[in-house]
Amino acid sequence: MDTASETAQVRVEGVWKVFGRKAREARAMAKAGASREEIQTATGSVVAVRDITFEVAPGETFVVMGLSGSGKSTLIRCVSHLVKPTEGRVRLCGTELTRADSATLRELRRQKMAMVFQHFGLFPHRKVVDNVAYGLEVQGVDRQDRQDRARELLDTVGLEGWGDHYPQQLSGGMQQRVGLARALAVDPEVLFFDEPFSALDPLIRRDMQDELIDLQMKLQRTLVFITHDFAEALKLADRIAIMNDGAFVQVGTPVEILTNPADDYVRAFTQDAPVAKVLQACSLMRPLDGTAIDPGWPQVSMTTPLETALPHLLGSTSPVVVCDEDSTPVGLLHGDDVAGVISENRP
Amino acid sequence: MTVVEEAPRTANGLRTASDSRLARFILAIGTIVVLILVFRLSTSFGVFPESWDIGLADPIDRARRWLISNQTSHWLYTVFLNPITDAIDWGIRRLESILKWFPWYSYPLITGVGLWWTRGRVAGVLGLASVSLIGIIDLWEESFATLALMGVSVLISMIIGIPLGIAAWRSDAVAKVVRPTLDAMQTMPGFVYLIPFVLLFGVGRVPALISTVIFALAPVVRLTEVGLRTVPQVTVEASEMFGATERQTLRLVRLPQARPAIFAGMNQTTMLAMSMVVIAAFIGAGGLGQVVLRAMQSIEVGQASEAGIAIVIMAIILDRFSTGIATADPGHDALALRWLAVAVTVAAVVGGLLGHNEFPESLNWQFAPYVDDATDWARDNLYDIGGSGIGTGPFSDFVTLEFVTPLRELLSSDIPWPAMIGIGVVLGLWARGIRLAVGIGAALFAIGFLGMWALSMDTLAQTIVAVAITLIIGVPVGIMTSHNDLLRTALKPVLDFFQTIPSFVLLVPVITLFHVGRIPGIIASVIYALPAAVHYTDLGLRRVPAEVHEAAESFGATRGQRLRRVEMPLAAPELMVAVNQVIMLILAMVVIAGLVGGGGLGLEAVRGLRRSDAVGRGFEAGIAIVLLASILDRLTRAIADRLRPPAAV
Known about the structure:
The complex is a heterodimer of chains A (about 350) and B (about 650).
Chain A: H1 2-7, E1 10-19, H2 23-31, H3 36-43, E2 46-56, E3 61-66, H4 72-79, E4 87-92, E5 95-96, H5 102-111, E6 113-116, H6 128-132, H7 134-139, H8 143-156, H9 172-185, E7 190-194, H10 202-219, E8 222-227, H11 230-236, E9 239-244, E10 247-252, H12 254-259, H13 264-272, H14 275-278, H15 281-284, E11 286-287, E12 299-301, H16 306-313, E13 320-323, E14 329-333, H17 335-344
Parallel strand pairs in A: 3-8, 3-9, 6-7, 7-8, 12-13
Antiparallel strand pairs in A: 1-2, 1-4, 4-5, 9-10, 11-14, 13-14
Chain B: H1 2-11, H2 17-41, H3 57-69, H4 75-101, H5 106-119, H6 121-136, H7 140-170, H8 172-187, H9 194-201, H10 205-229, H11 233-241, H12 246-275, H13 277-281, H14 287-297, H15 301-327, H16 334-354, H17 368-381, H18 392-414, H19 417-431, H20 434-449, H21 453-483, H22 485-500, H23 507-514, H24 518-542, H25 546-554, H26 559-593, H27 600-610, H28 615-643
């Protein structure tokens, strides 16, 4: 665990956020186990985030999932320091934000992090290309260089030729691509996503999720992703934290959460989740460990949804071989494991 | 039975609003009647006793004399005020000489191209023609004086207003001071600002400019603040997340997004400044305002209308320009316009070097004589048509004798002054509560102590008559337009026109028909305030939700029933806002009308501006205007709040 702490890119320790005047009293009540409503009636203060601790490793996608009012938006703002936490420490790329002065914080934001917003947060008075170039402009990069870089990123997100439009002229999905390009333009190590796809319609949302997965495979950045959509969390996350009433209820990989929900609150989500659609072969496969592969066993790729692998497993006792991009076998998918995940959640 | 039912209702504290409202209303009316009767019976009270005049005028006159005799020597002037005066004066002269350097024909051309660009071809042609008209009627020189004064006023308003707006947005402490000050500044008739500056600076362009700036400042400050406040938080967060400094966020994100609001503020500021053109001429602003003023005083209606039209043209062009800039879309004319703009610029510079700056006299043509002829004809023929007792003259006499004079008598002497104050207090108590009641009482006493009781009641009487006429005409028209989109579209340009033109100009045609006196002032103020009455009535009725209409209709209500039982009560708060706006507009206008024979506070104030021995009285009259305006404003706004249905619990 210690070594993990050394290499963690984002490290959050005991963060609290209390809105209102009587922060101290409210925190004391919260520590004694009072609920948010009780605290609010007693002190008039709202405990938005209570005692959150987590770490995110380089290249990891950490998803915080919670319903509206669970404090997830405040949490991501505490981590990125758009909102100052009432208590606790946040370390980002080895620098402690909580103690940093405004110049250090600004420098860190310029170099290390970027954020994608729920309602895009695009600047309506700037052209798309100038939106994407904003982070570089703030850093003082010359006009020509920043425009070149911005156009390059617009190509990456599939918006070549749209640079001279204004954001309002684009559809919602395209606007969020601009938001993504703008965040990537400064080449950040850590990317924060504040419910980036929740304002999009379901089909566009699915496309954007797939593209984010592709992009992440190429770029391998550290992502902190907020969502209220459990399926989205399952699809994107390396690890998920389920948040309720300001605190984490459970933190774990998608499979851990599906197979072993911590309490009824988490179970309620897992029961409705389209597990077979969302989970992919790679999340349930077992390592080869020298097992001899029968050439007759069916093969699937790592990103195949369980749903698609399922027909191969039905009525057969043999496992399915999971291969990587070069068709090299990397693991085996057993029918028992798949049945376990699916049946556990559909009693 | 009723008793049994009543008891639990009061016990639960669920007495309906209408019960208590009616009770309070009856109580208020009853108190007023009792007050009048009591003071009426003890006949010793009538007009506010003269011996109670605290005589504020004397010390002010003394101060004025002291200021005049020390103008060249005292440090207050040599170190502080004179440099300001000199700088502003230099600015105006400089701008005027720059404006005059360009050849005369560049102005119609620039206006034409500019309006084509921002508003389309028709506007462009009209702009070109109307600017030429100003030259044709030989008001070129005067227009430049006015334009330079306007330019510097608006510029100074921007220089002060935008940073002040930013400061008010940034700091709540600043906002807490700035906002009520601006509210108060906008409530006051512009006229009031002249007096203190004349006291300090004497007569001239500088005090005129300072008064204009103060009168016109409010919108740009307020809209800068509103613009900055309404910038979406998420864009600010995005900027912060990229490590932008506060200044970068302000410059690159906040201000650009607030720009439409700031432009709107600039437009309103320009319009307010234009409305001061004639008023500022009272203290030596010169230019077109002075032409109007001089012509009005010698009843040369032709000359006054020429200058009035020049002011209207200037106001409308500035308005269309400044509202058009933000949304300009030249469309497919863009290329042609670009070349035209280049050509005009070249022509302007070449012409300037060649020195074609005087508007050619050969093009002069004046319509003043025709207007004068028409006026004479109107006076001879419409004033009393064929001696029949029908015409504008008898109409004026009728309104004066039947309404204005009796109402003035009623307010100033028939209702004893203590009863008047009592009425004010009771209304304040009914509408809002003890604080407003005390405020109104104190303000009314102050008017009395200033020795302005009779004059204030005169102004109040004229205001009440004008408000009554405006509402009698305006509210039904508003009701009609709210039910008829066609009528509304047809009326809109007319109403817009009357709101754009400076108030004083309205007096010109009215004087033609009704001569000087109280009536032309009342009629001009009715015309001035009518658009507001129509607009707010229409707005209020249109806000009534469609389901409510449908519900009323489904119960089989007739149109009349629907209007009386459903729409009017629901629109009542907006109608009260209409009343408030109408009262404030009319009060401002009635004060101005005082200058052309309306008497009352306006006349007293203008005397103070003209004659140095009457500055003290003028100052007192100015304070009385401010007090009267505040009372009427607060009272009507409080009543509007009272009429609002109770908010959800």
